[in-house]
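Margin note from the TA: students keep mixing up input and output lines. Inputs are the sequences; the output is the structure of the whole complex. Example:
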Amino acid sequence: MVTHGVDLGDDLLEIGPGPGAATEWLRHRVRRLVAIELEPEAAAALRDRFAGTNVEVAVGDATALPYPDESFDTVGMFTMLHHVPTRALQDAILAGALRALRPGGTLIGSDSLPSDRLHQFHEGDTYNPVEPAAFLTRLQTIGFGEITVTVSDRLLFRARKTPGSGV
Ligand SMILES: C[S@@+](CC[C@H](N)C(=O)[O-])C[C@H]1O[C@@H](n2cnc3c(N)ncnc32)[C@H](O)[C@@H]1O
């Protein structure tokens, strides 16, 4: 579990919530959860599902996050990076997450590992899996510190906005 031992704080931003499986689990562990979703239909369904709760749903593109600097304690992204068409756009999401984190805040996430099966599943759809061996360096170059990348049945990652983070 990528959240194990992480202090999620009060304010959590979830990028690419899709149908909201992670949202439902996370929302009980923070004061406020903001979920930004690219697809208007998915966002509308999520808004209905979480109406009257501590979840705020926004339609938007996380490659240009519309939130002020240092406004979240945690940013989470689960099984969404491989839906982002280029590495540059993935990095824009990660850099935006770093910018939106408060000092000491944590990025948590997961993604599917590259596989032929997943490639076939995404035929005709965006499929741009993260290369696990290069991911730690990417996070480090963007400015994260205290980075952990775990490869098991999927890719799990955790990184912090440490005092040395370059934003
Ligand atoms: C596989 S689903 C995510 C599943 C979900 N996170 C979960 O844990 O069950 C990927 C989602 O990311 C969204 N997404 C892709 N690119 C995005 C972007 N640039 N900004 C925001 N959401 C994005 C897609 O619309 C889709 O709903």
